C-alpha cells in the first residue's frame, strides 16, 4: 500500500481513533501525522491475498489471528498505528481489542517502488521495538525475491534473502513453504 501524507492539523491518538472510524479509507498515524493508504498494483494485491490465505490455512486450528491490510496495528509502546499488508498475532492480549492489534509475531509488507525505502528503514525501526515481533517479511512484487528480518533468541535481528528455488521459513508461526508457491502465475515486471 502507498502512504500519502494528508494536509490537516495534527491529531492526538484518541482523536485519530475516533476520526478514522468515520472514514471510508484507512489512514496510518505516525507521530501525530495522518497518512492516507492508497492502492497497490495487481501483483501487490495478489501476493497479499496469497499470504493471508496461506497463514489462515496454516493457523486455522490455533487461536492465532491473521489480518489483512484492513487490520490496524498499534506499534507497541507508542501511539502510532499502521496497516501492514498481512499480520499475525498469537498473543491473548490482542483478543481484548476490537479496533487494532498490538502484539503481532509476524508482519508482511509487499513492496512497491514508492514505499520500499520506508518499509526497509523507518517502518522497520518502529516495528522492531515490539517485544513480540519475530518475523518481518518484505516481499517483492516485481521479482521472485523476499527479505526476512528475523529476531534471534538473543534479540539480534538478522536479514535472510530468499530467491527462486528457496524455501521460506517463518519460525514465528512454524511454517515452511517454497517461494514459488506465492509467485505462481504472476507476471513480474517493474512498476510503471
TrEMBL record:
Keywords: Endonuclease, Hydrolase, Nuclease. GO terms for molecular function: endonuclease activity. Transmembrane segments: none annotated. Residues 13-173 form the Putative restriction endonuclease domain. Pfam families: Uma2. This is Uma2 family endonuclease. It comes from Leptothoe kymatousa TAU-MAC 1615. The lineage of its organism: Bacteria, Bacillati, Cyanobacteriota, Cyanophyceae, Nodosilineales.
Amino acid at each position: 500500500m502507498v502512504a500519502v501524507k494528508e494536509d490537516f492539523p495534527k491529531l492526538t491518538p484518541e482523536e485519530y481513533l475516533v476520526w478514522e472510524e468515520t472514514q471510508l479509507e484507512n489512514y496510518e498515524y505516525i507521530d501525530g501525522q495522518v497518512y492516507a493508504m492508497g492502492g497497490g498494483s495487481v501483483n501487490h494485491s495478489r501476493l497479499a491475498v496469497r499470504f493471508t490465505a496461506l497463514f489462515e490455512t496454516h493457523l486455522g486450528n490455533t487461536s492465532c489471528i491473521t489480518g489483512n491490510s484492513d487490520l490496524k496495528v498499534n506499534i507497541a509502546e507508542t501511539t502510532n498505528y499502521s496497516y501492514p499488508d498481512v499480520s499475525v498475532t498469537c498473543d491473548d492480549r490482542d483478543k481484548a481489542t476490537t479496533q487494532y492489534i498490538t502484539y503481532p509475531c509476524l508482519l508482511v509488507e509487499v513492496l512497491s517502488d514508492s514505499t520500499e525505502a520506508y518499509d526497509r528503514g523507518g517502518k522497520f525501526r518502529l516495528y522492531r521495538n515490539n517485544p513480540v515481533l519475530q518475523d518481518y517479511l518484505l516481499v517483492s512484487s516485481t521479482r521472485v525475491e523476499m527479505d526476512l528480518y528475523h529476531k534471534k533468541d538473543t534479540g539480534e535481528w538478522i536479514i535472510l534473502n530468499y530467491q527462486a528455488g528457496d524455501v521460506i521459513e517463518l519460525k514465528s508461526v512454524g511454517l515452511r513453504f517454497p517461494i514459488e508457491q506465492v509467485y505462481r502465475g504472476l507476471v513480474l515486471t517493474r512498476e510503471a
